[in-house]
Amino acid sequence: MSESTRVIKPAVEDLPADLVDLIKVVGELPGEVRDRVEPVLGRVIDSTKRRRRIMNLVQDALSQLRLDMKYLLFDLEATRRERDDYKKQLDGDESAE
């Protein structure tokens, strides 16, 4: 087994099943062919991990945005209620004069 295959194996749990299957198949190839394919496979694995990290960051950002929107809507409703209460108070004060 070549060195790059050994480097690939520890992080297999983070990869999609199809990519794990491909790693196994490449590991079974004859040495000369495997040595040519493994660098490309390594780049594919790296890009897959990078995409997964980016996707996680985007999902976290969207979750935070949703939470921020809920807080903003709550704050807007509270502000509208306060405005309406002050208007009622002003109308009550003006009619009492």
Describe the structure.
By secondary structure, this protein is mostly helical. Helix content is 86%, strand content 0%. The chain is built from three helices and no strands. The protein has helices spanning 3-8, 17-27, 31-96.
| Average pLDDT taken over every residue | 88
The quaternary state of the protein chains shown equals: single chain
Fraction of residues in H or I helices: over 70%
User: Which structural class best describes the helix and strand composition?
Assistant: mainly alpha
As for the number of domains, it is: 1
Largest sheet: none
Rg from Cα: 29 Å
Shape designation: rod-shaped
List unreliable stretches of 5+ residues: 1-7
Number of helices: 3
Tally the beta strands. 0
Could you spell the SSE succession in H and E letters?
Answer: HHH
- Cα(first) to Cα(last) distance is 94 Å
Beta-strand content estimate: under 5%
